[in-house]
Fold this sequence. Notes:
Elements: H1 3-16, H2 19-33, E1 39-42, E2 49-50, E3 54-57, H3 68-78, H4 88-109, H5 125-150, H6 155-168, H7 176-181, H8 188-213, H9 227-240, H10 246-260, H11 323-346, E4 350-354, H12 356-359, E5 369-374, H13 382-391, H14 393-407, E6 411-418, E7 423-424, E8 437-443, E9 449-456, H15 464-482, E10 486-495, E11 500-507, H16 530-540, E12 548-555, H17 572-586, E13 589-596, H18 604-612, E14 618-621, H19 627-639
Parallel strand pairs: 1-3, 5-11, 9-10, 9-12, 12-13, 13-14
Antiparallel strand pairs: 2-3, 4-5, 6-8, 7-8, 10-11
Helix pairs in contact: 2-4, 3-6, 4-5, 4-6, 5-8, 5-10, 9-10, 14-15, 14-19, 15-19, 16-17
Amino acid sequence: xxxxxxxxxxxxxxxxxxxxxxxxxxxxxxxxxxxxxxxxxxxxxxxxxxxxxxxxxxxxxxxxxxxxxxxxxxxxxxxxxxxxxxxxxxxxxxxxxxxxxxxxxxxxxxxxxxxxxxxxxxxxxxxxxxxxxxxxxxxxxxxxxxxxxxxxxxxxxxxxxxxxxxxxxxxxxxxxxxxxxxxxxxxxxxxxxxxxxxxxxxxxxxxxxxxxxxxxxxxxxxxxxxxxxxxxxxxxxxxxxxxxxxxxxxxxxxxxxxxxxxxxxxxxxxxxxxxxxxxxxxxxxxxxxxxxxxxxxxxxxxxxxxxxxxxxxxxxxxxxxxxxxxxxxxxxxxxxxxxxxxxxxxxxxxxxxxxxxxxxxxxxxxxxxxxxxxxxxxxxxxxxxxxxxxxxxxxxxxxxxxxxxxxxxxxxxxxxxxxxxxxxxxxxxxxxxxxxxxxxxxxxxxxxxxxxxxxxxxxxxxxxxxxxxxxxxxxxxxxxxxxxxxxxxxxxxxxxxxxxxxxxxxxxxxxxxxxxxxxxxxxxxxxxxxxxxxxxxxxxxxxxxxxxxxxxxxxxxxxxxxxxxxxxxxxxxxxxxxxxxxxxxxxxxxxxxxxxxxxxxxxxxxxxxxxxxxxxxxxxxxxxxxxxxxxxxxxxxxxxx
Length: 641
């Protein structure tokens, strides 16, 4: 591949892995797993796994999206048109969705942390590895069988994921067999015996994985010395993969381990597994090396299996007669999404101008316009944003925990399409799967609150103050976005010697996820006309859907703007802004101001006193590191009202 082609491929992958795509995939995973707090992340490490709360997928797994031959063979085998092989973006989308579905099904049916970590058989790294691999084969076979048995439209994604892996890594390349053959150097006296055992173990497990996960493939015939192991273990693999309860499935994995224990090589280091991803790409989910978040355990629900992914329960190959139509429908859905993202990335900055009379401004603002600037999406800011978000992960996690407690299960809602419940939905009585029951389930309270952060962008905010505002904005956005709280972040300033107030929409109420990168461009200069800015804020808050509105004004002093004969300085600016603030409060909008000063600023109390002349509710913040917690306290107080 030429350097030009490589760069083109990297550019496409960067564009695909934008926040809009990630957020859409996360929403899908939350919907499928029925968990509003599941997080989904993209990586480029040839891994896909889950710990029960987070899903990690790699859209570019093994560069499958640009493997034209494998993609076309997959489409041919599934009996669908060459839809995804003709467009690398759509191939990325399909490969990503297949991984998301698989890992979401683990969240539904699998226990976390996985039982391997507590099993007394796992006394050495190799023994733990083998037990994990057996459990992996059984668990993957079950979740995919339950997924296509209980959920509509999951079969295409699951089959695409399995078949594409098959054609990308042909059986002749080996799977488990190749992985186990690469043993670490051990002693000359025991190496041959260990490698023989590893080879036999690999062959047996490769045979079992092929039978359960790729029943359309004829496995290689086992050597006679493995026949007794096959007879002892294959019924256990088959029966174990049909058990509806995760703990019952693991009991079968234990029994299989006991039956083949004498084949496990006695070596100190875990076996090298470079090719295991060919058949079990989600191996890390079952490895036990990713602890449950916050040490919490998660119990998978019981599943029902009416068929396997490729075959019925008697082993006969089956095909979904509607798979071609489903593939085409999903193709059109992905096309619309792709075109929307490409269009979004190509949009330049947008500027909207409001005149004072449109906002109902006082005479002191005559001739001064408000320019509302929505910056263009700048993906070059993404690395800097991600790096700062990583630095602030402790604050973000603390905020998430605080909001989770605040919003947890406060109401009961009714859901239908169940196979058991408390009452029957008459409109679903014709459902062939008998999903006509309704039951009450705990609901997550979605806050009916829209929050507008008004950040003072005047020159006096430079240095530590604006840096604190930037960091706080990242923490606040990440937490509020995670919990579906409507919010916007606006930096405002008034340009000296010009009739212009500028409002930069860093995060919009109705903006795309990538807009958050604009926070990194936050800077300072000139002064403020806060009374005019608040009048615009009142109008802007009407675009939010929540009934309750809150403005959090972050500032380091009183508004000041020089322009010709229309200077806006105290006491005029103080009186005008206070008048506008009272007007907004009477209209039902809550306003809280936060007075900023850095740690060594002796004027911190003065700043508080200045803002108290304008706003009835002011919070003092002399320690800038405490700014996020001050704002969180303000929001939680508002939510509890």
